[in-house]
Amino acid sequence: MKNVLVKISALAFTCILALTACNNSTKETTEQTAESTETPSISATPEAPKPIVSTEDKFYTIKTSAGDIKVRLYKECPMHQANFAKLVAEKFYDGVLFHRVIKGFMIQTGDPDSKKAEPGQQYGVGGPGYTIPAEILPNFYHKKGALAAARQGDEVNPYRESSGSQFYIVQGAIMPKEQLVQFGKPYSEAAIKDYATIGGTPQLDGDYTVFGETVSGIEVVDAIGNTLTNPGDRPKKDLKIISITEDVK
Could you give the C-alpha distances from 119 to 60, 93, 114, in angstroms and in order? Predict the structure, then answer.
């Protein structure tokens, strides 16, 4: 637990490392973050899609080189749901790497630059050129399998806007109720139960938009999360999204 807390403590520093293409591998692997280092767009071109009010959750199959992950996108997060649908329709995610994987924490993807997959290259600064307004809701939290949007740190992103394309899926770790108090955050009874039984990353709650969850294929999330990585958290063996398709009823 002490090691995990040390790793979580320096989100902003990790952003600076990635932006300057720093290769100080010892530092990078000691800090856990779900952040995107994608440069935010103030007058974004192209623009983020307009949210489409949905009366239902949307389901997608993420086909990866390690297997399929099926996810549900919440109707309560219409801007993130609409943006994901737009990018899927454009095949934006086809071929992107899981460029940042931290065992017991999360698997991150969605950088279009990673389609090049240059050996030894760090990724995490690419995106569609816009950000998405935060949709941080208390009833959606970072339980194992949660799907959430990466973002830049508060020092450059005070409104906690989401990356236009980068997202992560929580692998997480078991955390009993008595350990949650250290984060100084309120947790619902449902969240307390989930963190104590299936695990998650409760330290991220309230700071990132959780806009979906895994409904099947959690073993694939674990397989990706447990893969060996190079300094900088890129898997030694490239793991990628082959395609994402909407599951139509």
Answer: 30, 20, 10
pLDDT digits (tens, 9 = 90+) for 144-175: 999 999 999 999 999 999 999 999 999 999 99
- What's this model's pTM, rounded to 2 decimal places? 0.83
Identify the pLDDT of residue 48: 75
Give the span between the Cα atoms of 146 and 166, in whole angstroms.
14
Please identify which residue in the block is written with the tokens 């990724």: 123
- What confidence tier does 55 reach under pLDDT thresholds 50, 70, 90? confident
Question: Using an 8 Å Cβ cutoff, are 33 and 99 in contact?
Answer: no
Selection from 56, 111, 71 nearest residue 234 by Cα? 111
- Quote the pLDDT of residue 40: 43
Q: Which helix (H) or strand (E) segment is 60 a member of?
A: strand 58-64
Give CA angle at 143 (111, 199), nearest 5°.
115
User: In the chain, what are the domain boundaries?
Assistant: 2-246
Contact 204/143 with Cβ under 8 angstroms?
Answer: no
Fold of 2-246: Cyclophilin (2.40.100)
Of the candidates 64, 7, 69, 89, the residue with the CA atom closest to the CA atom of residue 239? 64
CB-count exposure of residue 153 (10 Å: 0-12, 13-18, 19+) = buried
